[in-house]
Design a protein that fits this description.
- It is elongated, with a radius of gyration of 44 Å.
- The model is unreliable at about 260-295 (pLDDT under 50).
- α1 crosses α2.
- By secondary structure, the protein is an alpha+beta fold.
- Strands 2-1-11-10-7-8 form a six-stranded antiparallel beta sheet. A six-stranded antiparallel beta sheet has the order 13-12-22-21-18-19, with no helix packed on it.
- The chain contains four helices and 22 strands.
């Protein structure tokens, strides 16, 4: 069974997340160039975590990192392995990865693939910050010293030579009309001789006219008597990131993100506390009692009372007469 690592799988606006599929018994995750999975962020230690395969299972352990390895909001203890399940999301410093267990094909040329992913992540971060992320060709020696060519468009074929239509026109009489072509492909720059009369020298080797050859900033290219240098800001930034010390995260950053609140159940299923109990519905107004007709018994009682009152008055009159 192979292990697929998806890097920054939830970064907003990042498009399809980069991924690597590995099947090694030991996978090193870190910021150094020697890591199997390179995460170019200063919060990631040079050797941050290790994934090990044993008995059909994968486990991850923290390798003494500065900012820790987190799964499900829990920081792993140093060198204490934790079994990985497909779909687990792991925080490595500030970087999130997702692991998937599957039977997918293993990534070919892992060192080149993980370097390309690291360069792509750095380039994206530089663009988001408004920094220039595309490479530039500079003529550093010869009659055309000071001329530059910005490789802004990926996949475009740029040509250097004496021809007026060339993207990098050269006044050097030893240069052919179309001497060399330069193409940016992702984070890489490749060059090819266009059948020039005097050839192209890349470092200590002559370029071929039948195939593309990678050009790195550490090597200069000679076209006629001009010497061309490649400036790669993304590669330089990646090198600086890999060489710097770990950046400790703040306590707020180290705090595990809160789990999303569960949706409230329907009202009929909730237990309502007394403090939040709904007010009682008002009672319907009482109807006024209806006046009923006086019964015959009531009339008799009233008549007897009047008779007694009259007799009492008459007796009182008799006693008080002179």
């Amino acid at each position: 069974m192979s292990l697929t690592i998806v890097i920054n799988s939830e970064a907003p606006g990042a498009g399809e997340a980069p991924r690597l599929t590995l099947d090694g018994a030991r996978i090193v995750i870190g910021r150094s160039a020697s890591s199997d999975v390179r995460l170019p962020d200063p919060s990631v230690s040079h050797r941050h975590a290790i994934i090990q395969a044993k008995g059909g299972e994968y486990s991850i352990l923290d390798d003494g990192s500065t900012n820790g390895t987190w799964i499900a909001g829990v920081r792993l203890a140093h060198r204490a392995p934790r079994i990985l399940r497909s779909g687990d999301r792991v925080r490595i410093g500030r970087v999130w990865i997702e692991v998937k267990l599957d039977q997918g094909p293993v990534t070919a040329d892992l060192p080149a693939a993980t370097r390309d992913i690291a360069l792509a992540l750095v380039a994206r971060a530089m663009r988001e910050q408004g920094d220039r992320a595309y490479p530039t060709v500079h003529v550093v020696e010869g009659p055309d010293a000071g001329a530059t060519l910005a490789l802004e468009e990926e996949g475009r074929v740029y040509r250097a030579g004496r021809g007026e239509a060339c993207d990098l026109p050269l006044a050097d009489p030893d240069a052919s009309r179309e001497h060399v072509q330069i193409v940016r492909r992702g984070a890489a720059v490749v060059v090819r001789d266009l059948g020039s009369r005097n050839g192209v020298q890349l470092g200590d080797s002559a370029l071929s006219s039948s195939r593309d050859v990678p050009w790195r900033s550490a090597v200069t290219m000679r076209v006629g008597v001009n010497v061309l240098a490649l400036e790669e800001p993304v590669s330089s930034a990646l090198g600086d990131l890999e060489a710097c010390d770990d950046e400790p995260m703040s306590q707020e950053e180290l705090a595990a993100p809160a789990a999303p609140a569960a949706p409230a159940p329907p009202r009929s299923e909730r237990e309502i506390s007394p403090s939040r109990a709904p007010p009682p519905e008002p009672l319907p107004p009482r109807a006024a009692p209806r006046k009923s007709a006086v019964s015959s018994t009531d009339a008799g009682v009233v008549l007897a009372a009047l008779v007694i009152l009259a007799l009492s008055a008459a007796g009182l009159f008799w006693l008080l007469r002179p």
